[in-house]
Amino acid sequence: ILAREAVCEVEVGFTAKARNDMNELLAGTRNRGVETGAAYVFARLGDDRQVKKFVGELDKELPSDTLLHGIDIPRARGALSLYRHDPMQALRDVEPGARLELSPFGGPVMTVRAQAYLDLHDGPHAAEEYRKILSHRGLTTTPVLYSLAHLGLARAYGLENRNAEEKNEYQLFFADWKDADPDIPVLKQAKAEYAKLQ
Question: What's the pLDDT at 3?
Answer without folding.
Answer: 87
